[in-house]
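Table 4 source record.
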Amino acid sequence: MNDRVREDMLALVGGKGRLSRREFVGGSLAAGFALAAQPVCAQTMIKTPADGLHAGEVRVQTKQGSIPAYIAMPDKGRHFPMILVVQEIFGVHEHIKDVCRRFARLGYVAAAPEMYYRQADVSRITDIKEILSTVVSKVPDAQVMADLDATVAYARRMGMAHARKLGVTGFCWGGRITWLYAAHNQNVKAGVAWYGRVIGDKTENNPAHPIDVVAKINAPVLGLYGGADAGIPNDTVDRMRAALTAANKKSVIHTYPDTPHAFYADYRPSYRKPQADDAWARATAWFKQHGVA
């Protein structure tokens, strides 16, 4: 490690009270909320402060060039347990950044890489169907897995993340990715998938879905789903639950009755505070129970 990299690492995790200008770059991730996710419900929106944290945008080097990522962690200490936070279809906008800060305030380093960076800036697209057809469908699962691997490697190389305490969580699109990543990276100790699709049509970019990789999911995953989710039928969730049981996996799926999709998204009308609070308590306890703390 050369002196300049060492200085940057110490600035990031050594509690000097400043961010490294070289590492925290800014400018590529969405500011505020994605247009397609608006109008924002300000009366229920949670705003987690960044005081006592290092939080900001970094550049993660991958085999296909660099991508931006939002990282938050305590401003004192190093080698924190790590949580990968995988975005909704709206990209890494303010809600996902806030989730990272929520984990950071619990003593984690939380990182949310922008998974669509090579395809498009979805924060400026106003129509959800357009995001799905012109961006999401063009993002290969293999690219996503590699970018998440690169983000973990970056955090460990910089001294932010513990070498063996890795968890992953994701919302909606990111919920599906959480299941897949738990099967892809055998170093994951636990995962929490929020209302992620488990069954779907196979394509060149999406050659497998969570139900297809159950045998490879060695890390225990907690699935959090809404019983009134119009986009993820209950029978598909039941099939995933049955497949996990048949394979003797330690994963658990909890379904909230009469609860819509995106019930944790506090900035949207779908937000349901009692279910969201209960799910967050379950999620954080799950990570601690399985050694990501």
